[in-house]
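Deliverable D4.2, example record:
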Amino acid sequence: MHLNLSTVRIENIYQQMKRILLYFTLILLGGVVQAQEHYNIIVDRNGHGNFRNIQQAIDSARAIKSTKTVTIFIKKGFYKEKIEIPSSVCNVRLVGEDCDKTIISYDDHANINKMGTFRTYTLKICGNDIQLYNLTVENSAAQLGQAVALHVEGDKVAFVNCRFLGNQDTVYTGKENARQYFLNCYIEGTTDFIFGPSTVWFEGCNIFCKRNSYITAASTPENMKYGYIFNNCKIELADSVTAVYLGRPWRPYAMTLFMNCHLPKGIKPIGWDNWRNPANEKTARYLEYNNTGEGAVSMGRAKWTKQLIEKDISEFTVGNVLKGKDNWNPTTIKN
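Output generated by the structure prediction step:
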């Protein structure tokens, strides 16, 4: 039988291409399998995961016997849930598929049945060693009172590329001696929308002010050296906002530092408020260093606050501020 040489060559090329296609298909499928294998639990509102609700997934994490962190992958969707991670659930990662499209939302506020501020949360975290990635957490209540989106009491809790949306009291860092870390996050609100006693480092975050009011209301205990540290953050104001304070002391020894941040026009020249109590001026620890923007001009700042100089700032590193007794350093977390 006589074979045309060109036909043989074409057949050989075809078979080689099939083998190459199969090879890359196997690699691709292997990558997909590997990507899925590191998720212990998948949440999908459309019913294609292990659970449709995030709270069910968190509750189930306790049953997983693992010495490693349990990872819950949350597919894109709108999850109207009021969620709590109890103190018995630790070493858990919640990973959203898309920060802008994986949304946890609820709408409680303080004046519903005299609920008060601290029960209004959308997401409450009491467990330790918790990480959140690529999620939006919002309190969508109308401006009718305090309405917390994130209430966190756990220690060594990190948030990476997340959004926290609300009005008054958006983020409550609610426990003494607890440490939290926010990396490349967006936080918005109206009044005192970052508040509480925890030691917290905000790195590369966007802080959006929706009203002429106060950004922070730290309540750092007297015995705690560090409260809120904002580093390389950008403060932004809504178009109608022209008069914002960097903070006021919810408790007398409030500690807050803005360093290497952009402060826009609209930050009040005085910078800080004493919460209608001159005695707080003797105890509150309000600091600034190397900020830029029209709102960073220090000439009119409150006399009882401090502008740091280069020799003062060597202690202000993530590793030092958050190390505690176990040398926690969340900078190893990848975005």
